[in-house]
Amino acid sequence: MSLLELNNLSVQFGPFQAVDKISYQVEEGEVLGIVGESGSGKSVSSLSIMGLIDYPGNVSAERLSFNGQDLQAMPEKQRRKLTGSDIAMIFQDPMTSLNPCFTVGYQIIEALKTHQGGSKKELKTRAVELLTQVGIPAPESRLDNYPHQLSGGMSQRVMIAIAIACDPKLLIADEPTTALDVTIQAQIIDLLIELQRKQRMGLVLITHDLALVAEVADRVIVMYAGQIVESGPAAEVFATPKHPYTQALLASLPESAAGKSRLDALSGVVPGQYDRPLGCLLSPRCPYATEQCRQVEPDNQGDLHRQVKCHTPLDTEGRPVA
Ligand code: SF4
Ligand code: MG
């Protein structure tokens, strides 16, 4: 039994298909990277797991389960309890996730209270422990700070402390370092990975940083326009990408010599509500697109281990298989 299981999950906003029948699993202790440009549906799919898609958004799935429990069939109250404790999420901008009106200590203690309880003194001790765990110096003195008194990096550490307060089995981190300075980014990622290993959490890391995913993820999912276009073990996918979109993303990394020309080949942006092409959604941007690509949507090829959604997946040399 997987920790998290999605089968054909879709999210629709009116006529707009933000997430289009995606399926994946996360195992206990596994780091899953989800990559793709903005607008690819990475965040929306995660918010739907948390039950955070509001009207008029509509979520449907053949299966959406956590630890074998069907999240869709669960009463609202029970699901909210689960998604605040066993599944936790941290967001891009810690400044907007923390409540500016309450102290750090108050916010951590509130999170602890909802899920475990204890005396005032016990809760305070646990809050200090958590701040220590996320590497905040002089934690005791920080409890009385308001969010505006913290730096961006410190705020994200506090958010992580709140997220892990209930010992989650799964942590979803949506671009957790995007709002931070480069040097701080690495520290926050190191912290997340350290906590993930120590507590054997499943970690879903949503990012546009492929180099990071290559370094820390066990498996990777590449999303484009709401669909999963490629998935598999991170090392394999990055060594020999089979989808032209993955190839283009990798080629746009600064270390890549082939960078420029490939990136030029992928000009344009992810299609929106009114310009979704027929056939393969990448066809207007794909350097290998054929007439078939412009007419017929490709199926998923491969097995659960490694999948690619393309009529002519690339071979190990990076050329389309005719
Ligand atoms: Fe490119 Fe065609 Fe593959 Fe789509 S199906 S990614 S257009 S080669
Ligand atoms: Mg996003």
From TrEMBL:
User: One of this protein's Pfam families, by short name?
Assistant: oligo_HPY
Name of the protein? ABC-type dipeptide transporter
**Which PROSITE patterns has this protein been placed in?**
ABC_TRANSPORTER_1 (PS00211), ABC_TRANSPORTER_2 (PS50893)
Question: Could you tell me what reaction this enzyme catalyses?
Answer: a dipeptide(out) + ATP + H2O = a dipeptide(in) + ADP + phosphate + H(+)
UniProt xrefs under NCBIfam families = oligo_HPY, PRK11022.1
Report domain ABC transporter positions: 4-250
Per the record, membrane topology reads: Peripheral membrane protein
What species is given as this protein's source? Marinomonas posidonica (strain CECT 7376 / NCIMB 14433 / IVIA-Po-181)
* Keywords associated with the record: ATP-binding, Cell membrane, Membrane, Nucleotide-binding, Transport
Cellular component terms per the entry's GO annotation: plasma membrane
Q: What is its EC number?
A: 7.4.2.9
Q: Please name the GO terms of the biological process aspect recorded for this protein, alphabetically.
A: peptide transport; transmembrane transport
Superkingdom of source = Bacteria
Q: Where in the cell is it found?
A: Cell inner membrane
Region (Disordered) residue ranges read: 300-322
Q: Which SMART domains match?
A: AAA
Nucleotide-binding keyword on record = yes
State the Gene Ontology terms under molecular function: ATP binding; ATP hydrolysis activity
Q: What is the lineage of its organism?
A: Bacteria, Pseudomonadati, Pseudomonadota, Gammaproteobacteria, Oceanospirillales
Protein family membership? Belongs to the ABC transporter superfamily.
